[in-house]
Structures are given as structure tokens and as C-alpha cells.
Amino acid sequence: MNAPAKTSPIPDWLATLLWTAVAFVVFDQALDRAFPMPADPAVPPGRVASYLDAGRSVEAKLRRMLGEDDTHAAPVTLSGWVDPVRWPADRPLEPGRRSLTVFGPSFALAIGDTLASSNPEWQFRARGGPAAPVSHVFALWRVDRRRVHSDAAVLGILASSLRGVNAASGATWMFESPYPYSYPRWRAEGDSVVGDWPSLACSDSMRAALASPGRWSAYGRELARTDAWYRPSLFHASWLDHSVAFRLLRKAWAQRENRLMTAKLHDRHGFLPGAEGVRTAQALAVQFTREVRADGGVPVVLLIEDRGYDDHLERALGASLRAAGVPLPVHTHDRAAG
Amino acid sequence: MSFVSLVFLAFIGIFYPLYRLLPHRGQNHLLLAGSLLFYGWWDWRFLFLLIGTSTLDWFVGLKLGEIADDARRKRWLVASLTANLTVLGFFKYFNFFADSFAHVLSLAGLHASWTTLHIVLPIGISFYTFQSMSYTIDVYRRHLKPGKDYFEFLTFVSFFPQLVAGPIERAVTLLPRVQSPRRVTWDGFTRGMYLILLGLVKKAAISDGVAGSVDAIYNRAGAVSGADVTVATWLFAIQIYGDFAGYSDIARGLAKLLGFDLITNFDQPYFAVNPSDFWRRWHISLSTWLRDYLYVPLGGNRGSTAMTYRNLMLTMGLGGLWHGAAWNYILWGIYQGGILCAHRLWTGGRKAASHAATWLHQLRFAITVLLFFQVTCYGWLLFRARSFSQIATYTAALFTAPGPLTVPLPTLPAVIGTVVLLALEVLQWRARDVHFYRAWPSPVRGALYAGLLLLVCMGLGNTSTQFIYFQF
User: Fold this and answer.
1) How many beta-carbon pairs below 8 A join chains A and B?
2) B472, part of any domain
3) Cα separation of B274 and B266, whole Å?
4) 3-state DSSP call for residue A311?
5) Is B118 a catalytic residue?
6) What is the pTM of this model?
7) Domain count across chain B
């Protein structure tokens, strides 16, 4: 081994190393205290606080977002739950009007709203959640069809949310801005689709689990079984959440995991044929169409290409869904093109 | 594998302790194996090209050492250069020239129907080809004795810290370091670590952090304002400097940890006051390579004024082409040649005095630096643009569409990192010493290192992009 030179200033080197460690801890904790997240989850954080907090564990973020109860929770956490216990009450169907229910992410809900406002015979309802993947949306349909008949039902599939199809919670595949809602990870079996319903299906049950280490561990085990995006190191809180540097490194790790997971579904040329997200989305769209028709309604499947996806969703799903008899009247890429 | 990756961290974590344990010959064998693994990690097929061209140049070097007859020696040199440039030309430029030729024919109403080959560009081919070529040229010129040991030569060409993005080392400096035992001192170790840290800040915090803002304008399909073009181009100047100088710093730092000293590739280039000054500071290993192996053999400034300008234009045009198979790189090279000629015409080739002492001179210097930065940035516009029409549109926007400014803000680490880097460069400038920080008391140095480390942590959360210069 090459020995260090005998004249090496080891004491100075050691002193510098120690000072580096001390300064690092001081800077780290100073930043943590200088840019805290607002205690009230309804108050939006500043840019710096938000940046430094992005790598906090999912568990810690959920605790803050959910608050003590729904009145103290961030508004965004109130939507998307598959348990209808807190769903807003539906307006009774007005005479002479027909019901149009849109199931999808906020993009789809906005499109449905516009459609309904320009067609007065339709009364619009919406079921969805922020950035909801099609598996989540399909779960909402399954719950909703038991409660309300829709004359027309729209299933919105968002290109960027296809990644979440093999997840079981909006908290795992959207690490930096997680949503607490959970949903089944569906798989095709024969002519139908099956999935395990999540044990935490409303905000109250999530809060109860967060308050009980045993239930929270059980939820972790459930996610480990059902959610391809679940990573314990990203999900569970620890004392390291108090370190800005650790949070930044965890954010970098989460981004790496995100890239690796996304690479299994999508590359710059489009969605990969045979990927779980593509196969499941196709099975769910076909099943949705079948069930809406069985209920006497008119099914519509809406493919929404958000920015950066070109016409990838149409190329991945369009032809096969049309061949399977799924009505795809229009696709956002065509609308944007002309 | 990229320096900014977990796989590289694992690689160096295993490689370095082993390297430090081994004697000199063992170190060289490990270095060669590690370098080939490092390079082959991208695509193992690239290794054939690297080993093939290196083997040829090593063999030609031996022949040049054996033969006394100048004419025969020249033939061997020409054979080596032809082979190297053919390989480089084929892999890097074939599709470009084929497409350009087909386009010219189509303008004349002719349709060229050949299949464009989908040639994968081996990473770093321009760097190691130039490095290998410099060896045969130096042996031919009798500046260097040929290396007898094939594996030592291959270790020199494939030396992993600088293999894929430079600095382009000369055999005359690097090969003897491979051949003789190396000593890693604490001083070298700490300097190396500082360079790595600084390089990571430049790459991860700064370059990756401004990339999104630059792309938002340069990849925009719609209209842009002059303010957008100006700010996005300033940011691109920061991005490309952070990316390339960051890589060079990491490469030099790693080399120091291994007991090697690589050439300083960037010497505060944005403090340049004229194009000649800029090229003494920017990508120094390439500019000196082009000077020694192209500009001087062409005649340099030894002939008439017209010949000097021709040589400058030719050298910079080819330097532009070296960067990539696209017309905008050639245009950038021509622009650099043009401003070098204009500067030479203006000054008559005299060098300006630097580091003036009075505040008036310093103010004048600062203004000159700022003004020349704008000239450099217009070059970056040519470099970054994706087509001639974009160059024309963006150039027009600079003069005809002043506002509004819609460039998205760079990330937080990019903003902080740029301020910190600028402060460090100003301090270095004032101290006229690269190692100015080593005179600081250890608590202050500790605070500097801790701050840089924290910036790296912040930067790693930027969506990672490849080093820009890998494509060259």
C-alpha cells in the first residue's frame, strides 16, 4: 500500500474533517429549523420549505396532510377514497336530464364538466382523485355502480398515471407529493379482473392506522404484498426525517427508483407492449365497457395524453381497445392536433 | 458508468481500497481491468473499438521506434492517422454526411434512396481517439519513445477517470506516470477529494439544476422573446460549464486519488476578456491539442496574415465539427474562428495586460468580462440550437421581441450553487491561486466542505441527466 507521506499534516486534516462534520450538522439543522413546513396542512408551504421537505418519508407527509380529522386535513386528502362513507351527496337527477358520471383524474373531471355544461340534457357527476391511475378509477366505478345508475359513464385514463397501475396507493408511486388514497392492484383473470381491496379505504381508517404502530406495520406488510412501488426506506418515518441532508438523499433515491420503475413501462418511444400498466389498463377498459353496458349505460373511454407523452397512450391502447369493442370516440392528442 | 451514479460509487468503493493495497504492477493491471469494466458498462461492444484502435497505435508506435527512414516513418504515421480518423469518421459522421448529401441532392430534385445506417456512437470516441493519435504523432516527432509494454499503453488510453470526456491527455505526460510507481500523498488525496466535491457541485447542483430552464426555452415549439433567449442562453452557458468543468474536476480529483496529475481543463473561462483568452481557459486540453497537432502544422501564424486567418478558421471549424455531427457545431466553430480572426485584426496579435491593480482598471476589466461573456453566449446559442431555423428565429428575437420573460426558475441548488461557485472563482481570481482555500483556518475550510457537501445532496435530487460531453 502506498503509505501517506511522513510529512502529512494529519492533525490538520483530522481537524478539518471534524470541523466539516460539525459544520455539516449545524447547516443541516439550521436549514431544518429555518424552513419548516406550516403546521396547518391547508396552508401552502414556501418554495424552499417545499423543496427541502420533498424527501421526507411518506408516513411523515401523510401524518401532516391528514391532521387530526377531516376538518384539519389538507383538502386534497379528502378525495379519492374508495370507501364512499365521506363521498359528497349526489344531487338528485333532475327530470328530463340524464346522468353522466366521469371516473378519472382531475383532467377527466374537467373534460366531463365541460362536456356537461355544453350539453344541458346531461347532469354531471364526478368520481376520482388527483392523478388517479385507471386501476383506482376502476375501483371507484365498482363502488359507485352499486349505489347509483349512470346513463353514461366515462373512464378517463391519463398517460402519466399509467405508472400507478401496479401500485396500491397514491402514496407510494408519487413519493414527493403523495396522496393517501389506496386502491386495488387489479389483474386479469379469465374474462374478468380481480384485485385485493385495501384495508385502509378512508381517511379515518388511515388516521387510526397512523396512530397504531401495529396497524401501521400491518399496512406496510399489505403494501409490500400488493404494491410494486412500495419501498420501506421511502415509506416509513424515522428520526432521520429531521435531517435535511438525509431527506435530500432520500429524494434522490426516490427519483432513481421512479426512473427504474418507469423504465419498465415507458421509454422515449412510448409505452412498452406487455408492460403490466398497459395490460391492466387494457383489461380494465374492456371490463368497464362490459359492466357499463350490462347496467344499461353508455360507456366511453377517454385516453388523455398529458404533456410529454405525445400520442403514446393512443398507440399503446387505441387499436386493441377499438378491436375489443371499447368506444373511444375521441382522444386528446387528436383534439390538440386539430 | 457515469460518475454520478450508485454503480460508480460501488465500483470505486471496491476498486480504490484494492488499488491502494497493490504494488505498482498490480495497480496497473487493476487500473486496466477497472477502466475496461468502466467503459464496457455502457456497452461491451464499444470495447472492441477502444482496444482495436489502441492496439493499432501501439503497434505503429513500435514501428516508428524501429524505423530510421523518414519516408517510411511518415507512411506508418499516415496509416495510423487514416485508420483512426476513418473509425472516428465512420462512427461519428457517416450518418450526418450521408443525410446532408441526400438533402443537397433533394434540393436539386434528385432522390437518394439508400438506407441510413443506425450507427451507435461509442461514448467518448473523440476523446480517446485524439489521445491515442497524439501518441503516434509524438513518437513520430521523436518527442516520445514508444512504449514497449502493450498493457501499459492500453492503460494510458483507457485510463477511466478521463476516458469518456477528457481531459485529453498527452502520452508524453500520462504514459510515464503509468510506467513509474506512483505515490499518493495526503495532500494529493485531500486536493483530489476537494476537486471531486467541487465537480459534483458543478454537475449535480448547478448544471442539472439549470437544465430544465434551458430546455423549456430551447425545446419550445412556440414563439420566444428576446428576454427568454438571452436568459436561457446565459443559463446554458452555466449549464455547459457546470457539466463539462464538473466532469473534468471529478476526473482530475479521481486521478489525484490514484496518484496521477491530469491537465487543468478549465481555468475560469468566463473571466476571459477576448476570444484568444477564452480559448486559453476553455477546454484547454482540446484547444492545445488543436494548436499543437493542427494549427501549428498548418503553419500557425508563421505565414502571411491571410494564411494565419485561414489556419484559425480551419482549426476552429474542425474543432466545432469535433464536438458533434451537426451543422450548428460547425457554425459554432466558424463563429469562434471568426471572432478569433476579428480579435487578431483588432489587436494585431498583441496580448492584453491582465490583473491591473487600480480600481479603474478593475472596473474596466469587469465590464470587458461582462461584455465578452455576451459574445461567448451568442456562440452558445449556435451550439445549443437544434436547427438553422431556430438559430435564425432566436437571433431575430434578440433584436425584435424584447419581452416578456417566461424562463422557469432554475432549481434551488442551482441558484445557490452558482452564487457559491462565482464567489469561489472570484476569490481564486483575487488570490491568483487555485488552492487559495487551503490557507484558510480549518473551521472555515470545514464550513466550505460542509456547504459543498450539502449542495451535492441537494443537487442529487435534481432529475439526473447525462454529461453533455459524453456525446462528443
Assistant:
1) 93
2) no
3) 16
4) coil
5) no
6) 0.84
7) 2
